Amino acid sequence: MDYRLLVYFLAVCEELHFTKAAERLGISQPTLSQQIRLLEDRVGSPLFQRMGKKVYVTEAGEILRKHSRNIFHELEQAQMAMNELQGMQRGRLRIGCSGNHLLTATIMTFHAKYPKIELSVMELATEETKEKLLSNELDVGVVFLPEEDEQLRCVPLYQEKLQLVVSAQHAFAQEQVREIRLAELTEIPIAMLQQKFYVRQMMDDCCAQIGLAWKPIVELSTLESLLQMAKNHVCGAILPQSYVDGMGAQMREQKLCAIPIIDPVPQKEVGIVHRKDMFLCKTMDTFVKQVIQEFA
């Protein structure tokens, strides 16, 4: 089967739009449609179904997509193995992370040592990182544990805890509150991440443990936006301690106060994960060891 046809096929799978896929590939839409028809003739089955203006992947298309990704994965593995011969002078790592702040120090150190290695870091929820690892769209991830998928290997890094962050104008800051019980958070307006994120799930699980029914007044999708809520005295924000610690100078400049949460403490282990069947090339092995060293 023509490698080029599979490239075209995967582009349409990802875009679910022939015109957008054609623009991405740098070819005309009629040419792309003709190439997809050629591929469908070769496999003997329709790969896409049009319903109005929408494009859907057929059952046969899903089968081909899965195997196509495996083909490209194997080719990338071969390239990684050949890169070994060049002493990490080229290559690429695709990384999924539950918060880019977790890898900032590692990325700076790694890039300084190996400037020709391309690093692509995506900030994703833990489940999204897992899915992309299993579909060969990522090489390694830093996620919340435990991870029980038999296809993934996990290395624990540290225990993440959550803290309440408020502005200097907040009553808790003025009263110099040292700790706050989880139940007390129901008495003040709070901003948190959306429910797909493990940071939010940590809070929800802790609340369930003590029979506390409670929801935040604001739900957002980034840690930066939560920090802005606290900074502008809109409400308090629940943030990971690792993020708060990394923002030390900015916290002081913006006169923000971090208060540990207790009874119970919302916490969860964070670790680095990759596929067990992944060829652990020198580039990836070095990066993984660098991450472990940074958290040691």
Query: Biggest sheet, in brief?
Result: 10 strands, mixed
Shape verdict: elongated
The rounded distance between the terminal residues' Cα atoms is 47 Å
Taking all Cα atoms into account, the compactness measure Rg is 23 Å
Structure class: alpha/beta
Tally of alpha and pi helices? 12
| Uncertain spans | none
Mean pLDDT: 89
Q: Secondary-structure element order, as H and E?
A: HHHEEHEHEHEEHEEHEHEHHEEH
Q: How helix-rich are the residues, as a percent range?
A: 40-55%
Name the beta content range: 15-25%
Total beta strand runs = 12
Condensed summary:
The protein has 296 residues and is an alpha/beta fold. The protein contains 12 helices and 12 strands.
Give the secondary structure arrangement, pairings included.
Layout: H1 3-15, H2 18-25, H3 29-43, E1 48-51, E2 54-57, H4 59-83, E3 92-97, H5 104-113, E4 118-123, H6 126-134, E5 140-144, E6 152-167, H7 171-174, E7 180-181, E8 190-193, H8 198-209, E9 218-220, H9 223-231, E10 236-240, H10 241-246, H11 248-253, E11 256-262, E12 267-275, H12 282-295
Parallel strand pairs: 3-4, 3-5, 7-11, 8-9, 8-10
Antiparallel strand pairs: 1-2, 5-12, 6-10, 6-11, 6-12
Helix pairs in contact: 1-2, 1-3, 1-4, 2-3, 5-12
